[in-house]
Design brief:
Elements (H helix, E strand, L loop, with lengths): L10 H4 L4 E5 L6 H15 L3 E6 L10 H10 L6 E3 L3 E4 L5 E6 L4 H7 L5 E4 L7 H10 L6 E6 L7 H7 L6 E5 L10 H13 L1 H7 L15 H9 L11 E6 L8 E7 L2 E8 L4 H15 L3 E5 L4 H10 L6 E4 L14 H13 L13 H6 L3 E3 L5 E3 L2 H8 L4 H8 L7 H6 L16
Parallel strand pairs: 1-7, 1-8, 2-5, 2-6, 6-7, 9-12, 12-13
Antiparallel strand pairs: 3-4, 4-5, 9-10, 10-11, 14-15
Helix pairs in contact: 2-3, 7-8, 10-11, 12-15
Bound molecules: adenosine-5'-diphosphate and magnesium ion (MG).
């Protein structure tokens, strides 16, 4: 049997991990690839495969039909027998069973003893309770749990359990219709139509972004995606180059460095396991190589040490200390500097002229994470970092590095001081240059 598994799904067959989670929008090829990969395995060795959902009212609710279709497509009709509720390989006795996790509890648990691979289709619908039942029942050594889903909410239970902070026993992969080499043209047309008519809905249905964001978020997902799909190249003399540095606070945080020139973010990189001296040298290297007009360093926590080293090495002109908790430039509108910088970032994303963000890992999640509030005297306040960390499973490091580039409201003077001619085609007064 020879299957054509799209590249995005190869790890279904090759990765030696317990949890394989594939998510994304419609027509990413998830269901077909899972069925094909399972058939490949069940044909080559004896396996018990459970295809489960939260509730399965009838076999029609399951992936039974898809698996049966693929058996037929590969000409394996003589090798597999289709029973009413299961599919059996007559040569090696591999078996597919189809179950609802929340039905007939005791019976369900008995039936999945000895399962080698468990496929949870539509796994975004699996409740926390069902996951608690399912996970420990798949207990054979080297058993695997495969999950295919399109995220519904920010914190779908299975997402929370596996994907927020994947461990070494978990792979999390995103696949969308444009990753599916078999995606039919009519599907692509439907995707593009919705993209034009209802971008927000498109992001969920076709790009696999969660639909609901609970709470009142400062930055809209849509604005981040727009900025990521824009092409903007700001000439060297049109705006000053600024750097933001968010220094790791605790062991598990990353140090993030952002370089932004006006409406274009040139790079947004993260570094792990660097000590204060190493970060300082990294920044010194960036200053020497790229000559940013200012480097804004978060000095809450370890950043203070980085700042001190850079000052002592003669970079006092260019580095500037920023403390997220310090007073805002406009204290009547913002509770602190952090809220003010992030609000400027939000305005920048909403600017009338296009802005450009790179597709850095974690950037969408970071930027859309903070919720906003207004205090008793109407000042904008952001959700506490510790609260965000609880929800996101990590700090918003890349988001903070970008926000730091907005520490100064007006940096025009830096460009003039450089004696360069402005390229006025690139100036937008609404944007923090
Ligand atoms: N291996 C394949 N061979 C042929 N067509 C495929 C294959 N994989 C996907 N497709 C096509 O892509 C469409 C979407 O795939 P599907 O698995 O249903 O995506 P998802 O489960 O991610 O929504 C299918 O309806 C089918 O037309
Ligand atoms: Mg599907």
């Amino acid at each position: 049997m020879k299957v054509e598994l799209a590249r995005a799904f190869q790890e279904l067959l090759t990765a030696k991990v317990r949890y394989k989670l594939y998510y994304g929008g419609r027509a990413g090829g998830k269901s077909f690839a899972f069925a094909d990969a399972l058939l490949t395995l069940a044909t080559s060795k004896t396996l018990l495969i459970a295809c489960v959902r939260e509730v399965q009212n009838s076999i029609r609710d399951s992936v039974y039909k898809l698996i049966a279709d693929r058996i037929h497509y590969y000409g394996l009709d003589n090798e597999y027998r289709l029973y009413e509720d299961r599919i059996v390989n007559l040569k090696n006795r591999s078996k597919f069973i189809f179950k609802g996790i929340m039905e007939h509890n005791a019976q369900y648990i008995k039936s999945v003893e000895g399962v080698d691979i468990c496929w949870c289709e539509e796994a975004q619908k699996i409740s926390a309770r069902a996951w608690e039942i399912l996970n420990p029942t798949i207990r054979k050594p080297n058993a695997e749990i495969w999950l295919s889903l399109n995220r519904e909410e920010e914190a779908d239970p299975v997402w929370k359990a596996l994907a927020l902070k994947p461990d070494e026993d978990t792979i999390v992969r995103k696949v969308n219709y444009y990753d599916n080499p078999f995606c039919p043209d009519n599907m692509k047309k439907l995707a593009l139509k919705m993209k034009q008519e209802n971008f927000e809905e498109y992001l969920h249905v076709w790009e696999g972004e969660p639909r609901r964001e609970a709470g009142n978020h400062l930055i809209a997902r849509m604005d981040v995606f727009k900025a990521m799909s824009n092409e903007v190249t700001v000439p060297l003399n049109a705006a000053v180059l600024l750097a933001g540095v968010d220094v790791a606070r605790f062991g598990d945080d990353k140090t993030a460095v952002c370089l932004r020139r006006g409406r274009q973010v040139l790079s947004l990189q993260t570094f792990t396991k660097l000590d204060v001296v190493q970060v300082a040298h990294l920044i010194a290297g960036i200053i020497v190589d790229h000559s940013p007009a200012k480097v804004f360093i978060d000095v809450g926590g370890l950043g203070a040490g980085v700042y001190d080293i850079l000052i002592s090495e003669g970079f006092a002109e260019v580095v500037m200390a920023v403390n997220f908790g310090e007073r805002a430039d406009n204290p009547e509108r913002f509770v602190n500097k952090r809220a003010e910088m992030w609000a400027r970032l939000r305005d920048w994303l909403k600017s009338s002229l296009p802005v450009k963000l790179p597709k850095t890992d974690g950037l969408v999640e970071d930027l859309t994470a903070p919720q906003m509030f207004f205090d008793a005297i109407g000042r904008l306040q952001l959700e506490a970092k510790s609260e965000i960390k609880k929800r996101l499973g990590r700090s918003t490091d890349v988001g903070d590095a970008l926000a730091l580039t907005f520490a100064l409201q007006n940096v025009d003077f830096l460009l003039k001081a450089n004696g360069k001619n402005r390229d006025y085609a690139f100036i937008d007064d609404n944007v923090y240059l």
